[in-house]
Design brief:
mainly alpha, 8 strands, 13 helices, single chain, elongated, 46% helix
């Protein structure tokens, strides 16, 4: 009799295990139709609490949450969900989401500061970034965050160019000021490296002037191979006490630029106008990347004093004004001297 009872109990247990296993299998296939690609687990959340939330939204049934309680006794690790914002899979199931939330592998977002853009454009990118806590609203905030090394001389008085052009990754609820500080530290590292590796006898007095030069190069050419050559033109002009006469500096200082430089613009006496003033402008005119810093520190050796755009992103470089004027007639005015 006892033997039969034991057999019956074993059979009942096996049947229950089969039923429960099937139920757990069904639970693992229970899909949720989340409305957003990201889901934020708030502080103090639990797996059972999330199940109740999705139950209230009509995503699950009461039976699912009851079954989940049993499942969590078997897999207690899934009960410890971690706070954060997660990127959810396209076909999310209840258990796959809980595994994700228990892993703590929160979503990574990215923000790119683009070389050649201004600090105001960088601030606009900050303000449009997803899941970023906004605590930088003006360019003065960027200047206030700058930690300029004491032995580098006077701290810059303008925020332009003080962010390194690169891509920065962050998690939800990071602050804009954190990204700004990282971009500034990256700039200081790259600027110092370029300064330490600079050629001798450059007409640049300090790291800030190297940054200014790099910004001019950045705005004049987007071609990696051309940047050291553009740098050589500026170096040759500075060494010869010629004005740099670079259009991007004129544009930078205008408050009402129409999209085309006029003779009146070239005569505008604003301090960034390198057609009116000798030497470098008083500050950078854009964000820069590593290639522009390297070109500023290590220009090509050339006899070029002029360059003009071909209209395809590349430039024609000239040694003499006569050669330059011929290139202008051909590529700007559309006239061929042949």
């Amino acid at each position: 009799m006892i033997k039969k009872l034991l057999v019956l109990l074993l059979l009942a247990g096996a049947s229950a295990a089969l039923v429960l296993g099937y139920a757990f299998q069904q639970l693992g296939q229970r899909q949720l139709a989340l409305s957003q690609p990201y889901f934020t687990v708030q502080a103090g959340s639990s797996a059972r609490g999330l199940c109740q939330q999705w139950l209230a939204e009509g995503q699950l049934k009461a039976y699912d949450c009851q079954l989940l309680r049993l499942y969590l006794k078997w897999q207690p690790g899934l009960a410890q969900v971690r706070q954060g914002t997660y990127q959810t899979p396209d076909k999310a199931t209840l258990l796959s989401l809980l595994r994700l939330f228990a892993s703590g592998e929160v979503a990574q977002f990215s923000l790119t500061f683009i070389d050649g853009e201004t600090v105001q454009q960088a601030i606009s990118r900050l303000q449009q970034a997803k899941y970023l806590r906004q605590d930088v609203t003006a360019s003065s905030d960027i200047l206030a965050l700058l930690s300029w090394p004491d032995d580098w001389g006077a701290k810059p008085q303008h925020p332009e160019g003080l962010l390194f052009a690169d891509t920065y990754f962050y998690t939800a609820d990071s602050s804009a000021s954190e990204l700004v500080s990282r971009a500034q530290q990256a700039l200081l590292r790259q600027l110092d490296l370029a300064w330490q590796q600079r050629q001798g006898a450059l007409p640049l007095q300090n790291r800030y002037q190297l940054l200014i030069m790099a910004s001019l190069i950045e705005k004049e050419s987007g071609l990696l191979a051309e940047k050291p050559l553009v740098s050589s033109v500026f170096v040759n002009r500075l060494n010869s006490n010629m004005r740099l006469q670079t259009d991007p500096t004129v544009i930078y200082g205008l408050t009402d630029y129409s999209g085309r430089i006029t003779y009146a613009d070239l005569r505008n006496p604003h301090p960034y106008n390198t057609y009116r003033h000798h030497g470098l402008p008083p500050g950078p005119i854009s964000l820069v990347g590593a290639s522009a810093l390297r070109a500023a520190a290590q220009p090509d050796v050339s006899d070029y004093y002029y360059f003009v755009s071909r209209g395809d992103g590349s430039h024609v470089f000239s040694q003499t004004l006569e050669q330059h004027n011929a290139a202008v007639r051909k590529f700007i005015l559309g006239k061929n001297d042949d």
